[in-house]
Amino acid sequence: MNKPLQTNPIKLSQPMGALLCFLGIKNCMPLMHGAQGCASFSKVFFTRHFSDPIAVQTTAVNDITAVIDGGDYSISEAVKNITKKVKPDLVGLFTTGMTETKGDDIKGATFLLKDTQLMSYVHTPDFEGGLESGFAKSIEAIIEQLVEPKDEIDMQKALLIPNVNLTPIEVEKIKEEISSFGFETFALPDLSESLDGHLGVKQGALSSGGISVEEIKNLGDSALVITVGDSVCKAGEKFRDKNPKSTHLHFNTLSGLLHVDKFYKALMDFKHISKPKPSVVRWRKRLQDALLDTHFALGGTDVVLALEADQALSIATTIKEAGANIKAIVIPTKTTALDELDCENIIVGDFEDVEKELQEADLLISNFHGERIAHKYKKALVLRGYPNYETVGNQLVNDTLYEGSCYMLFEVANTINSL
């Protein structure tokens, strides 16, 4: 029986996912249509996680404007104030629960401003969905509103659509591997160039890097679109509507030996290549050895994961190959992403559910808020997901492909052995 409420939530909101998406577009100003506190919370949240300034503005809806304004005035005033100080290539407009409940016409407001500022809009109420869906909806909106339809394809051009859980370095690594097959590779969005922790100029005024608006408009001739994560599969399908001649390759995860094998096999088949480059073969052998080495620590270990669904699938896949037993996975929102995974118990719940499951387990893999529970029951803890206030360098944590899967296995095994 489902609980009537969440007592200690894992869930993050859709607007936070939308914010992350727009931060992966060069010179973009994310504009949250809602109360000032909503944007302030998200800004502080991601600033602490990434240890970098976060660019976001708000329409600052208050008690008065919430009643008398249909959204047009507050949005136009916010855009006017933004453009007085900076010149964004794109304003990414997304909603919150309050403005969605009001029924504000953000499409109409965007249309009224089309001659003064390029904008992309997306509906992301925080009373439904979560971080993954907010991120995915924003990608879909960008594809629908900005990507120009094309009749032909460029066989040397590829598009990567990552899920929200992939760190900037993971996006970069996947791009590099796709590019090694002879593609000019773009990512939508591209956090590997904006939230990767580089030292830039005027950080925080606008998004400091990522895919440019011009590149987004010209994505329509990409021969290959690769989606990673169940949450963004629909975005790949929407891209194909822009150019039915493109090929869509979808992977629920790019972690663990078998799933990464499928990734390289698909790219080799597309390019008609019979053998991967030597570095790929070498890293595959390292992962095979890592699976053997870590089996002594992970074999039979009972693990509880409390993460977004796509990330839970990736990590569970990797450690199961080394013999771990996935006792329970607690996710914040409903999904079909975990249907293929062998797991004792999959729960849509909160940290109260995590606490119940962890008592009979050995290891918890969760975000910073799982730390108190792990310490309470004296269980091993590996930090992943949003937020992680405990450590720095979150943007450079790599759990993907052969290389990242090795790092993940070693970290988990060393954590267990240190108890």
Structural summary, described in words:
The chain starts with 13 loop residues before the first helix and ends with a helix. The strands form 3 sheets. Strands 11-10-9-12-13 form a 5-stranded parallel beta sheet, sandwiched between helices. The protein has a 4-stranded parallel beta sheet with strand order 2-1-3-4, sandwiched between helices. The protein is an alpha/beta fold and 419 residues long. The chain has helices spanning 14-22, 36-50, 63-68, 72-85, 97-102, 106-112, 131-146, 168-179, 213-217, 233-242, 257-271, 278-298, 309-321, 351-358, 371-376, 401-417; strands spanning 28-33, 57-58, 90-95, 119-122, 154-162, 184-187, 222-228, 247-251, 302-306, 325-331, 346-348, 363-366, 380-383. Strand 5 (154-162), helix 8 (168-179) and strand 6 (184-187) form a beta-alpha-beta unit. It is built from 16 helices and 13 strands. It folds into 3 domains: 14-143, Rossmann fold; 154-253, Rossmann fold; 281-417, Nitrogenase molybdenum iron protein domain (Rossmann fold).
Q: What would the keywords be for this entry?
A:
single chain, alpha/beta, Rossmann fold, 3 domains, five-stranded parallel beta sheet, globular
Main structural class: alpha/beta
CATH architecture of the largest domain: 3-Layer(aba) Sandwich
Tell how many strands the DSSP assignment holds. 13
Number of helices: 16
Principal-axes geometry comes out as globular
